[in-house]
Structure of BMP family ABC transporter substrate-binding protein:
Amino acid sequence: MHRPLLAAALVAAAALLTGCASGDDWSKPRPGLSAVGVLDAGFIGTDAPPAPESTVTPSPGSWSGVRPSPGTRVVLLTAGHDEPTKTLVTAVKEWAEDEDVDLRTVTASGPADLLPAVTRAMEMRPDLVVSAGNDLIDPLATVTPSHLAQQFLVVGAELAEPTENVTAVDWSGASFRGEGLGMSSTYDPASFTDARCAAAVRAGAAAVLSGHTGIVVWLDEF
């Protein structure tokens, strides 16, 4: 290749790489979570906002009008290799791709890495941390009350005593709560279908984006 052509190709390649890198740079400040659209009336079911730690049972699809602003920074925090967790992880990744979310993943390597993984996720300073995997419930219960400025979304499980920054999406076939309470008697891995997990991610994200945090979104009727 002639020198002028080679130089031009290198400049173009450098510009392309720079563009990709700038899009991945989370060091720049952002205004925080913001939503595009509004919830349908069937999501809350009342004119009054839900009380902290309360449970809402939204009508199917009542969350579909709410999306994150493009480029919203989300960390997927995950642990475990069971099928329910894998299905939840896939649902989060597909939601992020569909909604132009800037998604990064933190995976706990084992029991000793659960708390450090939560810390790593928070240190990235995302707009939202989405948790998938029952093993993370107790570490989250330990950490989240001391970091109220960071929003968390737990899918397929819930914290026994969530603070205002922890929103959960659950159903009777899931409903693991940690803190020595054991697995729910109604736990059913088969209830973690692709469709339900996709709905759980979207419904939970819509709740957080709309300012309804610290609650449990119940999807038994899905």
